[in-house]
Specification:
Elements: H1 2-11, E1 19-29, E2 34-46, E3 51-62, E4 65-77, E5 82-91, E6 100-108, E7 114-124, E8 128-142, E9 145-158, E10 163-178, E11 182-193, H2 196-199, E12 208-222, E13 225-236, E14 241-253
Antiparallel strand pairs: 1-2, 1-14, 2-3, 3-4, 4-5, 5-6, 6-7, 7-8, 8-9, 9-10, 10-11, 11-12, 12-13, 13-14
Length: about 250
Amino acid sequence: MHLIFLLIMLSCLNSYGNEIQATSQHINLRKQNKIGRQQDLIGKINLSRKVDIGFQGTYLERFDLYEKRFGGFIQTRINDRLNLEVRYLQGFKSEILPEKQTIITSYFSYASGVTPYITLKDTRYSVTHLNNIGLGIELEKIPNILLIPSASLGRAVFKYPAESRDVYSLGMKATYYIENKFSVSLFGYQGREVSQGLVGRTTTTLPIDTLSGGAAVSYFFINDLKTEIIFDHTNYDQLKTEFHTTTLNLTWMF
């Protein structure tokens, strides 16, 4: 009922810039013959020329675990060049999803076609506490082609046994797009992740090396309705498994 009320409230707003995004994700854990699913619903309300607020809800099924989380965010355009977003998500006795997560992201339009960004994350699982910083830059020096190199560094602190390990990520995404019509993307990432975010509560503090790549296609049915399909493959040799993930995003802008 609360969600229905919120959607009605959103539809009554006159200002353009509101969004509702529904995400459905299917994960095939190939070497373990297991399936995972995740559903997300994200809404954004345009309050003024400088401020947006939003909500996010997640439901996950994996390894006989059924988890959920809820949260919200605020976005503000500090000036014509600088944007800031603060997001908070709260889990409920979760093993795979974080119990608490705070994300701060800032974009700065440095020059035409050059937009660097920085992301700070504080992620608290049931037995793992992860802090990391991410840096990236959106480059569009060729019309309709967007390149996004990115990197992150972090530190994971484990409760059992009590110790800490470094994690990192390096990646590149390339996108060709036609405004309000379609886009095609290729991406690849290499890094080291904490195992709890992959398989749930674990007694090992061994970070998991990852290598992933994939592609995405988005298409605007009309100016205000976009669909996107993402395919990615990730190797987790230390876990003796592979994740094949298919994600469908539907975004309504009004």
